[in-house]
Structures are given as C-alpha cells and as structure tokens.
Predict the structure.
Amino acid sequence: MVQPISEKSVPAVSDTLSGPMLSASKIGRRLQESWIWQDISFELFAGDRLAVMGPSGAGKSLLLRTLAGLDPIQSGEIVFQGTSLSNLSMPEFRAQVMYLHQKPALLEGTVESNLRQIYQLKVHHNKTYDRSQILDYLSILGRSEKFLERSIEQLSGGEQQIVACLRSLQLSPTVLLLDEPTASLDNAATHQLEALITQWQQNDPNRACIWTSHDPTQIERVTTRQLTLSTRSQ
C-alpha cells in the first residue's frame, strides 16, 4: 500500500488570502483487493508549485490522473474551488484542471492545426486561438514561427510534449498537472519549458501546478512544496 509520508512546504503568498483551489481528503485508489495508495490528503493554493514524489510504482501518475477526474477513487473526496468533484461537470472541470500526459495524444496535421482544433470543443467555445500568444511562447522555447508548420508525424517525443504543453497553456487553465513534462527533452529544452511554465504561472497569481519528475534537481528548481508517496507492505 502507498501512503503519503511527508510534505515539505514553503507557504505560498496566497495561502493567507483564500481557501484551497484544489484539495484531497483521505482519498484512496484500489485495484482489485490491493490499495495503490490510501488516506492521501493535501491542499493546493493559488500560486502553489507542488511536487508529487516517490519511487517507481508508487502511483504518482495515477494520482495526477485521479486529480484530473480521469480515474476513480474508492475512498475520500476531491474538492475544486469549494465544490466536490462528484458534483462538477467533467468537461468544465477538465478545462480548468488539465493533465499533461508523458506521451500526449495529438492529431494528424501540423503543430498549428493541433493548437487550433482544440477550440472546436464545446467547452472552449468562448475562447479564440491567439497566434501572437503562441509566438510569444515559442520565443521563450527558443523556436521560430516555422515550428507551427511542422507535421506532427515528424516530431520527436520531446517536441510532441512541447506541443501538448502549448495546447494546454493557451487555454488558460487554473491548475496544470504535469506528469514528467520534460522526460523526452534535452537539458536546454527542459530549462526552456520550465521557464515557459513559470512565466505562464506568473502571468496570473491564481494559477497553480503539480509536477512529477524523475529528476530531483528539477523538483528543487520548479516546486516549493513536496508530497511524498512511499510504498510499504500491507
């Protein structure tokens, strides 16, 4: 069974200004008769940068998927902006709390067509594609406008992660759940993507993010709080 064993915290400035944006209260996930993790509780405040840490198999990715409403829980409760997840519209919730998978699913076509097509979803009907914003993002990533013309089929795994990140950031979510977002990137590209996410968060003090990463030095750079999962025998 996996349980949270420690939380290293540096209080966010916004902690004293409002309640948590996203919280988990004694949540647990079970497969058949075995608990993957149980009794996990934490609060995520505006401005937070929280790391979920633990050994391989501890269920870090599964926890992020669960917080995004993609996987069920068998105990406890998840609350977003004061409302239980069970009482929220999933499309609207996932437009605010976005999960970035290690291996993102992209559509055929160019990078720009992938960025544009997301706006066809009903939940994003009140938003419009902003090419100038994307170009600003690309500048931080050290890439030119020509990147938008690239075919998805020709992109490396790391470049596909970049596209998935751009696709999410342009929609201005409230919470980003970042599951090894730089796992396929080289050192330079990793720092550029970190800078982009930092800039995105600084642009709106009401944003927060949760990271998983195999690199402890990255965790030290990009997060201020750490929730650690640890395996132990039942």
Observations:
- The first strand starts at residue 2 and ends at 8.
- The first helix runs from residue 60 to 67.
- The chain has a mean pLDDT of 90.
